[in-house]
Specification:
The chain is an all-alpha fold and 412 residues long. It contains 16 helices and no strands.
């Protein structure tokens, strides 16, 4: 069973190169099937799985109360509830262990990804410069995926001084530039110096940078939110007229329309939020402008007209309670990744993926997007599988005698 599941994890990772065929979601479906066994896990349940389960729980309650029919709608899982697929690998952490060379697996993944994207790049990439979507439905999905391949090739190049790694890194950077995904460029562009600072025990600088972004966005919203409220009807009609077009909106549109929309949901129902999936259910319709608990009464719509900021989006839909649980989960992902210092190669990839998603999510809704998150989360799961094998049980602090530690230093 272990080998079959690990095969599916690797298969899902390789097929994350496209979202036309949803094979990359197969490991997540398996993880969801075994998730009910979490309470029966022996040993210490890792925080990343505990908090992920808590977030699933509160999200499911919100969906059942707000839009139970969404659970039977495929588009719900594609748009509003896509975290169900993206976060599932974290639920499987206690159930996997392996001594296979996962570094070879992720290297092979980035090689295959780079090769299969080359023909469409040559054929039509430069003629669609700034809007190239590779093997994905949208260019932002392609760009988000490339954050993972850039991360792996960067670590391969820098840690091993590998010419193969440098070549792959260069090619994937070119792909990313041609995709025109600005959020992805922002994400990986800030993730690399963040890893540099974390490795030099200057994590406070990274925290300060994140705080600075939050303060800048708060300052912007202090100016744009009153404008949004004043032209409320016009705002909603513009977004509702072509909701999917909101994906291509620039930062000004986000600041004037998208971010304030998530903030309105939060202010209307700050404790538990306006309902899971409510931010894009336009026009927004609240009985009161402020209430400790109320749901949006607008029509239930499944599309990509989200708040273009994962943190504001979650705050608006799930309130302080849901946001707090999400942040406990998201911080636990960082702590688990950063603590894997005996897996230098995989740790660097996990941290780059983590920070790429985090920074990109300040201008996009990236953290739960499967095209962006699945390759990162599946590689994280492989890293944890090795940890579980080395330490004998989940949560152990010392290695079990006889465990074989895989070599970390390789040459191209």
């Amino acid at each position: 069973m272990q080998r079959a599941f690990l095969f599916l994890i690797v298969l899902g990772l390789f097929f994350s190169v496209t979202n036309y065929v949803p094979i990359s979601a197969v490991p997540s479906l398996c993880a969801l099937c075994i998730a009910p066994l979490l309470p029966f896990c022996f040993g210490k349940l890792p925080n990343v799985s505990r908090y992920a389960a808590m977030y699933y729980g509160i999200s499911l309650v919100s969906v059942i109360l707000y839009d139970p029919d969404g659970l039977l709608n495929y588009d719900f899982y594609r748009y509003d509830g896509n975290f169900i697929i993206s976060f599932a690998p974290f639920l499987a952490v206690p159930f996997v262990k392996t001594k296979i060379d996962v570094i070879k697996m992720v290297k092979a993944f980035v090689v295959v990804s780079t090769i299969v994207n080359f023909p469409p790049m040559v054929r039509s990439g430069f003629s669609h410069f700034g809007d190239f979507d590779g093997l994905f439905i949208a260019h932002n999905a392609f760009g988000g995926f490339l954050m993972s391949t850039v991360a792996v090739s960067y670590v391969w190049w820098r840690q091993e001084r590998s010419r193969a790694g440098l070549l792959l890194f260069t090619m994937n950077i070119v792909y990313l530039l041609v995709s025109g995904s600005r959020g992805s460029l922002l994400g990986i562009g800030l993730a690399i110096p963040s890893l540099f600072l974390i490795d030099r025990l200057k994590g406070a600088w990274v925290g300060g940078g994140i705080l600075l972004i939050v303060l800048i966005e708060a300052a912007i919203l202090s100016q744009t939110y009153p404008i949004y409220l004043e032209y409320h009807g016009l705002t909603e009609s513009l977004i509702a007229a072509d909701t999917d077009g909101s994906k291509e909106a620039n930062v000004a549109i986000r600041a004037l329309f998208d971010w304030p929309r998530g903030l309105e949901c939060f202010f209307a129902s700050p404790i538990f939020g306006a309902g899971f999936g409510a931010v894009n259910d336009l026009p927004l319709d609240f009985k009161e402008s402020f209430s400790l608990f109320q749901f949006n009464r607008g029509p239930h719509i499944y599309d990509s007209a989200h708040a273009h900021n994962s943190f504001i989006h979650i705050l608006g839909e799930q309130g302080v309670v849901g946001f707090a649980i999400f942040m406990m989960f998201w911080v636990s992902v960082f702590r688990e990744a950063n603590g894997a210092r005996d897996q230098r190669f995989m740790r660097a990839i996990a941290l780059l993926g983590y920070f790429s998603l985090t920074f990109a999510s300040f201008t996009e809704h990236r953290i739960p997007a499967p095209s962006n998150a699945l390759p990162v989360n599946l590689m994280f799961l492989l890293m944890m599988a090795v940890k579980n094998s080395r330490f004998g049980r989940v949560g152990a602090k010392t290695a079990v005698p006889g465990d074989v530690l895989l070599p970390e230093n390789r040459t191209a």
